[in-house]
Amino acid sequence: MNSKETRQAAKQTTHERDGWKCVVCGIPGNSETLSDHHLIERSLWASEENDGYICANLVSLCSSCHLKAEQTLISVEELREMAGITEIVVPEQFYPETQLTKWGDEILIGGRRLKGPLFDEESVQEVLREGRVLGFYDNRFKYPRTFHMPFSPGALSDDKKLKDCSQFEGKEVVIFVKIDGENFQVYSDGYMHARSLSKPNHPSQAWAKNYLSQRAYLIPEGWRLSCENVYAEHSIHYSNLDNYVYLFAIWNERNEVLPFDELVEWSELLDITLCPVLWRGIWDEEIVRNIYRSKYNLDDMEGWVSWTTHGFHYKDFHKNVAKYVQSGWSENIKHGGIHWRDKPVIPNRLRERKQ
Ligand SMILES: [Zn+2]
Ligand SMILES: [Zn+2]
């Protein structure tokens, strides 16, 4: 974390940049009366060297404009513009192109909001309630960004990589096969969406939607499932799938992922195939570094994803989940050839069952 002196220096530089005035209403002030407001909340800047005390994340505000900014009545973009900030910096867990509130809630086209990592916190609830903006929030959650393992060969320059594996040390993990499909969230009210909520439906989703809608009534109220829809070929053509939908996480009404053992029980109860597990055990970097094989069940394997098994809150996702992608696959998947959304649907194949 930054030292007190670094923070003081950032604050000083910010006020100087802003001419010792509130960037919104122009009222002049001093170090006592002007706040150094964080465009994106401090606690979301989790990394060691950056805790959000950087000028591109700070603006000078008077007390009344500060309150409005905290209540999200003035947007991050407006504040950036008023302060003349052209550099867009957001905490690593977010994508720079995503429009966010100060509290890390994604803002959709049209102004509806998804609940972000800090939404449940009492102080945040209070601020949003006072700002009368709670009505903008949908009870939907974006599936979080998964960081790469430090030794993941497939990490591209715009991917986020863990510096080391210390966050897993001493913890039990389960390592899932990474399936090259589409991330799919299913809610207790039957609503489903892919990673991006703004993309239109796609014909390759029909099978999964039908399959999952028959099971949604079993999902407890306020819970949601994270699944992979693998009906259509993306970069890998599968010939030996157990199912077109794989379950890999369940979130409860407090936005916590269930411990792995409970996930296993629920996958049986819901009758949704669990994502294949490569290994489970207390984190051992030696073992984990050597766990990748090019094939799983005779099909190509893109990589794997490691999850701690104890369960955790949505806001701690990046501290508990990380992936390994074999080089070649990410380039293929992200930048190579025609994107699967633009191709005709080629169904993957289920494994032939012996009679
Ligand atoms: Zn002001
Ligand atoms: Zn503030």
Largest sheet: 5 strands, mixed
Helix fraction, binned, reads 10-25%
Number of domains: 2
- The CATH topology of the largest domain turns out to be D-amino Acid Aminotransferase, Chain A, domain 1
Radius of gyration: 22 Å
Strand content: 15-25%
Number of helices: 9
Order of helices and strands: HEEHHEHEEEEEHEEEHEHEEEEHEH
CATH H level of the largest domain: which superfamily? Answer: DNA ligase/mRNA capping enzyme
User: How many beta-strand elements?
Assistant: 17
Which ligands does the model contain, each kind named once?
zinc ion
CATH architectural group of the largest domain = 2-Layer Sandwich
Classify the secondary structure makeup into a structural class: alpha+beta
Mean pLDDT: 93
CATH class of the largest domain: Alpha Beta
Biggest sheet strand order reads 5-17-15-6-12
What's the overall geometry?
globular
Domain HNH nuclease: 9-67
Pfam families: HNH (PF01844), RNA_ligase (PF09414)
GO molecular function: endonuclease activity; nucleic acid binding; zinc ion binding
Protein name: HNH nuclease domain-containing protein
